[in-house]
Amino acid sequence: MPDTISVALISLGRVGHQFAASLAKHIEQGDKSIEITAVAEQDPDSETPKKFAADGVPVYTDAAEVAALGEKIGIIFDLTGVPAVRQTLRESLRNTDNRHTVIVPEVFVRLLWSFLGDGAVLSGPVRSGY
């Protein structure tokens, strides 16, 4: 089995909730060597973060806390669509000389969704840019 890819999800709103549920389902089916290592959501008491917490996944309220995990995270899926959050993530990685972790913007998540999705439409506005 190949090395497991450690991912973090930032923002579990409409798009984040759908993407997280689909990714988790594929992981549970055992056909993806991916582990969701951390999530960040401004409202940690909402449904999706509570589910992750119950499964033992650390839940943070600040994206910078996830970036501070360093090379424990291979991919950060930024599902916020907020350029300032992405900039904060970039700066956090740069300040710690983390050249391992990749930040994936929401537009790429939509592309990935087209491969992972079960025919459902990923809701929410389309935000592009890096």
| Class by alpha and beta content | alpha/beta
Count the helices. How many?
5
Which superfamily, in CATH terms, is the homologous superfamily? NAD(P)-binding Rossmann-like Domain
Taking pLDDT < 50 over at least 5 consecutive residues as the criterion, the unreliable ranges are none
Strand order in the largest sheet: 3-2-1-4-5
Tell me the span between the first and last alpha carbons: 32 Å
- Percent strand equals 15-25%
CATH architecture: 3-Layer(aba) Sandwich
Give the topology string: H per helix, E per strand: EHEHEHEHEH
Secondary structure tally: strands: 5
**CATH domain topology:** Rossmann fold
Keywords:
5-stranded parallel β-sheet; alpha/beta; 5 helices; Rossmann fold
How would you describe this protein?
The chain is an alpha/beta fold and 130 residues long. It has one domain (5-116): NAD(P)-binding Rossmann-like Domain (Rossmann fold), CATH 3.40.50.720. The protein is 40% helix and 17% strand. It has five helices and five strands; from the N terminus they run βαβαβαβαβα. The protein has helices at residues 14-28, 47-54, 63-67, 83-95, 106-116; strands at residues 5-10, 34-40, 59-60, 75-78, 102-104. A five-stranded parallel sheet has the order 3-2-1-4-5, with helices on both faces. α4 links the parallel β4 and β5 (102-104). The longest helix is centred in the N-terminal third of the chain and has 15 residues, at 14-28.
